[in-house]
Structure of PRC-barrel domain-containing protein:
Amino acid sequence: MSSELRLKKLRGSGGYVMATVTDEQQMKGNLGGPDLFLAPIGRLDADKITKHFCNTCEKEFEGPPKIEFENPNEEVAENLILAERGQYICNSCNASIAEYRDFKKEDEAGEVGSAKPLEPQVQNAPQPEVAPQQVSEVAATPETVTQPGPATSVTSIEGKMVFDENANKIGTAKQVGIDSTQSMVLVITKEDGTEGSIPWNSIKKIGEVVLLGSPEAAPQPGKCSSCGFVNKEGSKFCEECGNKI
Ligand SMILES: [Zn+2]
Ligand SMILES: [Zn+2]
């Protein structure tokens, strides 16, 4: 592959940067639409960035934004390591222009052993408008997508409405993050537009929406663990599917 560099506009959630990118980076940033996104690309060399635009300042600035990153190398889900998280930050107002997370699998040997190329295609990417961050995670860890649990949620959570246990909408899921105590959290945009974070373990269920509440622990004594049918209390077998309760 040629390493030809092209000047491209790379969009983030709070602005964009103009940067020279390689073909490979261009491919990563292309989510199928006309625009290229910064989040799937991850960290760029600052000297490749010529300009940045901050949505908060509504202004284009010469030169790169601040790029802050750290490498927590923290296990955030089974066999899923948060290798690096970073932010492109406006020099002028400190607003976030783009964020990225690079995840990797803990089981490196497994990855090496499988003949898959490290760089997956981003074919099943959602519309470019949603979730550049989450696509980055999909791209970085394709194997984890099929696993149940947080790893799955990581890839598909953005944009889902978040409801509390009383079915009140409290906001919209933004991304999976890590709080100051290094715990996994769900970052949400609240109804009033501000950001908030919810401890990962207070998420009850992720489906069409994100439901908060105490973790799945069958509240009804007769509830079938297999099909979910609520049987009479004290039942030994499920009326619906015959499963032992
Ligand atoms: Zn700004
Ligand atoms: Zn059943």
About this structure: Residues 132-140 form the longest helix (9 residues).
